[in-house]
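Class, look over these structure tokens:
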Amino acid sequence: MRLDKFLKVSRVIKRRTLAKEVASDERILLNDKIAKPSSQLKPGDIITILFGNKEVKIRVLELLDSTKKADTDKMYELISERKINPAD
């Protein structure tokens, strides 16, 4: 599954176009490497997303083509969430 689609389906990012934009701006890492929106995911991958002054790190658990809001927690596990200083 593509990175941008996973972020939208799992509801980590609300819209696929926004997920694509964030990845194109090199603010998403996949296994500690800069990811493209089309990067292919597999269970066990680690995604790091830089949202303004916050860094979120998640582990991919399952790839589902569509899901209900209640089932999104089956798709990923939150590893860490921390505020970052813009000067870093």
Summary: DSSP finds two helices and five strands in the chain.
